[in-house]
């Protein structure tokens, strides 16, 4: 059993004086390509990383909720029926309970200990991992029979309705449904998905955490969404039969240049070209063409930087430094932007050089070192009943 699993089991025993009934876990994610496309009903291509949130739990005898974290977050106790927001970490687990109840599942209270190795607030989706780990715990505790596709949708509803963050569906889908050695091609309109084998033969995925907190992310994220919606409205008014940017082509955008404000035009161009890049990336990987995949990854960053304008100095430096290292095929920011992480595809024997040069360049410019980690595509959420 993994060390982290053992840790939550032991902590549960100490805290509640009894053994837990279920152990669950869910991973964080890195998006390989397809950024800011999910809420435009487009395509994304994330993989789960080797950092997870673990939770051990059991139903409480008195119906109360008792949630503990081993990551230094405050403990939570609640005896009532009506769950309300607390503006703290427990909103994610409580949100999942609340959505399940809304959907007619009769859940009582539970006791649980959480522990996570997904860095918080660094763009690797610790919140989605927390929601998904909770859902899998509850599936184990109450024997809920939920179709795979329903699981991330429940967690996404928890995040948008209960926690109040207007995110897309990517993070919850990959955390719930990831498969080892695969990345997930997800169509965010139909929620159809495909597990694509990620054969990197001698190459690997390096994630660099700028450790820059994504301060602007909420307001700017919402603004980008509005700009995309505005683009769609303008095209509709001009007679185009489109429902989301997913339906828009580059030619269409160009033919309406006069009508689209310059900023809206740029935002739309990013989304339209990014969707194409996702589909082309999957094709390139299928034929083992890592070079082409790398080029598309680079183009994605440039589009996010200049057209979508969600990069920042820290991310640009990470990407530029990586691109200067022999053996790197592509590098881009990943996640919402404004801080957080980059993802780089690099030959295994060049990882050391990449790490050294990145840390040096970053330290010289910003006075501290980013954190670099490699990860294979990991398994999605799971739970087990303990006897
Ligand atoms: C955040 C959101 C996702 C997605 C990305 C950008 O991670 O949670 O739904 O929109 O930003 O691709």
Strand content: 15-25%
List bound small molecules. Answer: alpha-D-galactopyranose
Quaternary structure: single chain
Query: Architecture of the largest domain in CATH?
Result: 2-Layer Sandwich
- Count of structural domains: 2
Number of helices: 11
What overall geometry do the principal axes of the alpha carbons give? Answer: globular
**Can you tell me the CATH class of the largest domain?**
Alpha Beta
User: What structural class do the secondary elements suggest?
Assistant: alpha+beta
How many whole angstroms does the radius of gyration measure? 21 Å
* Low-confidence spans: none
Protein model, in words:
With 387 residues, this protein is of the alpha+beta class. It has 2 domains: 203 residues, 2-Layer Sandwich (Ribosomal Protein S5, domain 2), CATH 3.30.230; 172 residues, Alpha-Beta Plaits. It contains 11 helices and 12 strands. Strands 1, 2, 3, 4, 5, 6, 7 and 12 form an 8-stranded mixed sheet that branches. α3 packs across α5. The longest helix has 25 residues. The site of alpha-D-galactopyranose (GLA) has 10 residues, from α5. The site of alpha-D-galactopyranose has 10 residues, from α5.
What is the compact description of this entry?
The protein is α+β, with helices and mostly antiparallel strands and 387 residues long.
Which structural traits does this protein have?
single chain, 387 residues, Ribosomal Protein S5, domain 2, 2 domains, eight-stranded mixed β-sheet, four-stranded antiparallel β-sheet, globular
């Amino acid at each position: 059993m993994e060390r982290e699993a053992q840790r939550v089991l032991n902590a549960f025993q100490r805290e509640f004086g009894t053994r837990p009934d279920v152990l669950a876990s869910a991973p964080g994610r890195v998006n390989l390509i397809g950024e800011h496309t999910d809420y435009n009903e487009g395509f994304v291509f994330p993989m789960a990383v080797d950092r997870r949130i673990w939770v051990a739990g059991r139903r409480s005898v008195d119906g109360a909720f008792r949630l503990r974290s081993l990551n230094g977050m405050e403990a939570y106790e609640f005896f009532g029926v009506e769950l309300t927001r607390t503006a703290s970490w427990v909103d994610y687990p409580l949100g999942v309970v609340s959505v399940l109840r809304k959907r007619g599942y009769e859940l009582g209270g539970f006791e649980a200990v959480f522990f996570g190795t997904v860095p918080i607030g660094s763009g690797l989706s610790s919140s989605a991992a927390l929601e998904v780990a909770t859902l899998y715990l509850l599936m184990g505790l109450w024997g809920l029979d939920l179709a795979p596709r329903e699981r991330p949708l429940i967690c996404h509803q928890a995040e948008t309705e209960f926690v109040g963050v207007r995110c897309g569906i990517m993070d919850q889908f990959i955390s719930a449904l990831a498969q080892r050695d695969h990345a997930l091609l997800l169509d965010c309109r139909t929620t159809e998905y495909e597990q694509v084998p990620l054969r990197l033969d001698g190459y690997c995925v390096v994630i660099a955490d700028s450790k820059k907190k994504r301060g602007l992310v909420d307001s700017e994220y919402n603004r980008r969404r509005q700009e995309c919606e505005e683009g769609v409205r303008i095209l509709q008014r001009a007679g185009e039969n489109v429902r989301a940017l997913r339906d828009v082509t580059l030619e269409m955008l160009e033919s309406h240049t006069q009508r689209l404000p310059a900023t809206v035009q740029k935002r739309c161009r990013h989304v339209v070209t990014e969707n194409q890049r996702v589909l082309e990336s999957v094709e390139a990987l299928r034929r083992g063409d890592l070079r082409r995949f790398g080029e598309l990854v680079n183009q994605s960053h440039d589009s996010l930087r200049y057209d979508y304008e969600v990069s920042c100095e820290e991310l640009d430096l990470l990407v530029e430094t990586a691109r200067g290292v022999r053996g790197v095929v592509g590098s881009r920011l990943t996640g919402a932007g404004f801080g957080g992480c980059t993802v780089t595809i690099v030959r295994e024997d060049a990882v050391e050089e990449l790490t050294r040069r990145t840390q040096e360049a970053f330290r010289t410019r910003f006075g501290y070192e980013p954190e670099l980690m490699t990860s294979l595509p990991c398994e999605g959420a799971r739970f087990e009943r303990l006897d």
